[in-house]
C-alpha cells in the first residue's frame, strides 16, 4: 500500500500522486485480505513435498498417507506433517478408515487457491 506524506498524498505504482482519501475502503480491505491469503498460500506452496502432494491428489481422488509418502519418497512422519499443514489451509481432508488415513483434495478450496494466486499474477 502506498505510504502517505504529510499532505495526505501517496505515490501509485507508476509514480503518480493520488490522494489517500481517494482509496475505496472496501476495495482496500479486499486487497489486504487477498494479500494475506496469498501470503499464507505462498508459505504452504513453498514446500516441494506439499506441491507434489497437491499434484498427486489433483490426479487421484483419494490416496492413503502411506501411498503419498511412497510416491513422494518421503517418510510417513514428514508426509503427515505436511498433510496437516495442507489440512489447516483447508486444501485437503483426512479421513481415518481403520488403521489407514485417506487424504482427499478439497476441489473447491483448491480452485479458490488458484483464483487467489491468479489475482496476484493479474490484479484488477
Automatic annotation (TrEMBL):
Domain spans labelled HTH arsR-type: 32-124
Classification via InterPro entries: ArsR-like_HTH, HTH_ArsR_DNA-bd_dom, Metal_resp_trans_reg, WH-like_DNA-bd_sf, WH_DNA-bd_sf
Molecular function via GO: DNA binding; DNA-binding transcription factor activity
Organism superkingdom: Bacteria
Protein name: Helix-turn-helix domain-containing protein
Keywords assigned by UniProt, alphabetized: DNA-binding, Transcription, Transcription regulation
Amino acid at each position: 500500500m502506498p505510504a502517505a506524506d504529510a499532505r495526505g498524498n501517496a505515490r501509485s505504482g507508476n509514480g503518480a500522486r493520488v490522494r489517500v482519501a481517494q482509496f475505496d475502503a472496501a476495495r482496500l480491505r479486499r486487497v489486504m485480505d487477498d494479500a494475506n491469503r496469498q501470503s499464507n498460500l505462498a508459505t504452504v506452496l513453498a514446500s516441494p513435498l506439499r506441491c507434489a502432494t497437491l499434484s498427486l491428489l489433483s490426479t487421484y481422488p483419494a490416496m492413503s498417507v502411506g501411498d503419498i509418502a511412497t510416491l513422494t519418497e518421503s517418510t510417513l512422519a514428514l508426509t503427515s506433517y505436511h498433510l496437516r499443514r495442507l489440512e489447516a489451509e483447508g486444501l485437503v481432508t483426512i479421513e481415518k478408515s481403520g488403521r489407514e488415513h485417506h487424504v482427499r483434495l478439497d476441489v473447491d478450496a483448491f480452485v479458490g487457491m488458484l483464483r487467489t494466486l491468479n489475482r496476484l499474477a493479474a490484479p484488477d
